[in-house]
Amino acid sequence: MGVDMGPVNWVAVILAANLAVALGIVWHGPLFRTGRPLLEGGPAKGYGTVVVVMLIGAAMLGHNCARIGAETLAAKPWLWLMQSGGLAIAFVMPAVWLTQARHGMTPGQRLIDCLYWLAAYLLMGATFWALS
């Protein structure tokens, strides 16, 4: 009746999540010097939690790409970034923006964080594309 879903690339899921965390370390450190780590609690506790959260997002992105199918993605390679960036723009960025507004963060701080999430999701999409 429908098209069968292809396999999720779990190597890409793990690599994409870890690359997104690495980007966050650079983004909030040397790049923008926000003085705010990805998560409070020190490297061991904080980054472990961030990796788990990124794994959830990467797994969903991997599932989404597997659902689209390898043939479609090979014929339309822009879909890798369109899907990953679209998820960030439509779901993640509005949630971050509104949550941080509620907590009194400045528009500049919210913009830096929202752009991080867009860059992280685009990096995850590019990782899936590179490993496809």
Give your account of this protein's structure.
This protein is mostly helical. The chain is 79% helix and 0% strand. The chain has five helices and no strands. It has helices spanning 10-31, 42-68, 70-75, 78-102, 107-130. Helix 1 (10-31) packs antiparallel against helix 5 (107-130). The longest helix is centred in the middle third of the chain and has 27 residues, at 42-68. The radius of gyration is 16 Å and the shape is globular.
Quick tags:
132 residues, mainly alpha, 5 helices, 79% helix, 0% strand, globular
Provide a brief overview of the structure.
The chain is an all-alpha fold and 132 residues long. It has helices at 10-31, 42-68, 70-75, 78-102, 107-130.
Report, as a whole number of angstroms, the end-to-end distance. 26 Å
Query: What would you call the structural class?
Result: mainly alpha
* Shape summary: globular
The protein's oligomeric status is: single chain
Q: Average pLDDT value? A: 90
Q: State the helicity in percent bands.
A: over 70%
The gyration radius over C-alpha positions equals 16 Å
Order of helices and strands: HHHHH
- What is the beta-strand fraction? under 5%
DSSP summary, beta strand count: 0
Separate helix tally: 5
Poorly predicted regions are none
Q: What can be said about the biggest beta sheet?
A: none
SSE topology sketch:
Layout: H1 10-31, H2 42-68, H3 70-75, H4 78-102, H5 107-130
